[in-house]
Amino acid sequence: MPEGSTAQRRQPGTRSRRRGLIMLAGLAALVVALLVVWLIRVRSDQATGAGAARPPGSVPAPGRGADSALPRGDGGVVDVYAHARAGMLSPVVRDDPPLVYVPNLRDGTVTVIDQRTLRVVDTYAAGREPQHVVPSWDLRTLWVNNNRGNSLSPIDPRTGRPAGPAVPVADPYNLYFTPDGANAMVIAEANHHIDFRDPHTFALRHSLDVGTACAGVNHVDFSVDGSYAIATCEFAGRLVKIDIPRQRVIGYLDLGRDAAPQDIKIDPAGRIWYVADMNADGVHLVDGDRFTRVGFVRTGPETHGLYPSRDGRFLYVANRGGHMDSMKPPFPHSGDQGSVSVISFATRTVVATWPIPGGGTPDMGNVDANGSRLWLSGRRSNVVYVFDTGGPGGSEPKAGRLLARIPVGREPHGLAVWPQPGRYSLGHTGIMR
Hints:
With 433 residues, the protein is mostly beta strands. The protein has one domain (80-418): Methylamine Dehydrogenase, Chain H (7 Propeller), CATH 2.130.10. The protein is 10% helix and 37% strand. The protein contains 1 helix and 29 strands. The protein has one helix spanning 6-48, and strands at 99-104, 109-114, 119-125, 130-135, 142-146, 151-156, 161-162, 167-168, 174-177, 184-188, 193-197, 204-209, 217-222, 228-233, 238-243, 248-254, 261-266, 272-277, 282-287, 292-298, 303-308, 314-319, 339-344, 349-355, 362-367, 373-378, 383-388, 402-407, 416-418. Strands 4, 5, 6, 7 and 8 form a 5-stranded antiparallel beta sheet that branches. It starts with 5 loop residues before the first helix and ends in a 15-residue tail after the last strand.
């Protein structure tokens, strides 16, 4: 093209327009790519429940909350149970009648006891082999875990009565809820699974296979920030640590060849986990973050259930009173030398032991709303025990007077004392945060 032609003079403008078109095309491609990523993220959240709507006052997603979101007590110190003190009843439960719901495993029934009169006021059918009565995360339903019936039966805590048909769920030995309320965790002990489900419909979202490496998976508690959980593996003698956001196994911790871990509870500071071992007659101390065993506290025969006092100073330990050779009916008398040990969280030592006059087999339960009474099922005695804890908050470990021994059905197990203080429930018989 001749130098100085019209076409040549227009070339700079043409190049500019071309560059503009290229930039626009690149920008459009970037927008499309971001839109695709966003859609994938939304669908992934829907599949895992991470994006599920949560009611006001709910907590941050596990591992995403700032340090300031952690529960704190006096002096700004982290306190796992800071929101579950006496008098801290949610408006959701404030008018619920004070009742105790007792699942009778061999009868397939639930016995209801009035907390004020210590009398049985109702008994109704559940499913086959009900193991635990579990408060939902939103505090609006109590779920009866019909283990062999493969279902969950709803109870309305406002009336104390059944609230509709049972929901089909495979092998629900126990039931928990992730701290953000996004998922239910059905502990399918016989199937070696922890099933993450919709917390309302219980539709299956993800089944975590813990295998025989965690044979007998049955009890769970959660870290203070909700980023991980630790579950007990009764028949494998170990613990399993679970990444909650990713719903996968982090690792295992062996507790000894003859160990039979049962209930598990985190301390108020969120550092040390207490693990009941019914074969070792005591409680293992585990550093949860490092996932290492750091100590052991001897309590009593067949250590089983663990319940923090309402003021967060003590841990009540139910010693069921026998060993594995006394677990099959007819139960021998030698298996009823049960007691309650009181461990100080501050010193990690036993500061009191409460015997049961005439013997007993305390198993699972909880303290009442103000912490003045400890309720425990008598697994092999077909009764419910009620202990005086020494006043509101459970502030006197030397108390421990047995107030009542209430006859119920055959093999009562994980009873629920309701209502409970707290913002939400993590499940089991009422782990409140």
